[in-house]
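Worked example 3 (structure in, sequence out).
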């Protein structure tokens, strides 16, 4: 599967992929191949991942990348990224995204991003998660970004997968990558609402 994803990413300047994984071994292989392919293609990589997975990936990456190449992989704890305000709160996450992405744009550094999304103890997260993904889709298209949004399919509440298919042009599983037939761009309104707070307006 990972070869198909890397081929798709390398042949498209802008891509926003929804990945609902089921098997952790397949997940780790896919994220590893995505990261290594990015570095070997001359890009930097922003990895937003759980602390547990970061520890495993650190070991695996050192087996495939040189020390110099490892410097191109920026690792961020996804709990700190998504729960910086104490809960899954889109304006606060938007601010974290601003902080993480700005150096790449200001220094004209090509990069790709992989994020493992978690919403903590938030009940019925579908609406609020979808709202933020709408805003992210706008940024992806506006800035020609390459982004994989990974979700643990075993923990997703009923209906969330279908909802997220609306804001991701491509859908990935452990075995496949297909175009989302449900995708419809809806991001500008979400971005406008998030940018109403001048302290959290994207600076790049």
């Amino acid at each position: 599967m990972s070869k198909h994803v890397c081929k798709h990413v390398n042949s498209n300047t802008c891509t926003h992929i929804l990945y609902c994984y089921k098997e952790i071994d397949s997940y780790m292989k896919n994220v590893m191949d995505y990261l290594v392919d990015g570095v070997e293609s001359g890009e930097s990589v922003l990895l937003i991942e759980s602390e547990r997975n970061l520890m495993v990936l650190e070991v695996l990456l050192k087996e495939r990348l040189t020390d110099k190449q490892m410097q191109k992989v920026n690792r961020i704890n996804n709990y700190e990224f998504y729960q910086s305000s104490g809960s899954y709160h889109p304006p606060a996450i938007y601010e974290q995204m601003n902080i993480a992405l700005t150096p790449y744009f200001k220094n004209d550094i090509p990069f790709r991003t992989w994020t493992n999304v978690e919403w903590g103890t938030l009940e019925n997260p579908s609406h609020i998660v979808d709202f933020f993904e709408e805003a992210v889709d706008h940024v992806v298209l506006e800035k020609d970004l390459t982004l994989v949004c990974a979700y643990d399919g075993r923990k997703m509440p009923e209906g969330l997968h279908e909802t997220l298919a609306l804001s991701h042009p491509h859908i990935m599983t452990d075995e496949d990558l297909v175009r989302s037939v449900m995708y419809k761009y809806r991001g500008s309104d979400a971005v406008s609402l998030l940018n109403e707070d001048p302290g959290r307006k994207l600076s790049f």
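Notes: Residues 39 and 69 are 7 Å apart (CA to CA). The mean pLDDT is 86.
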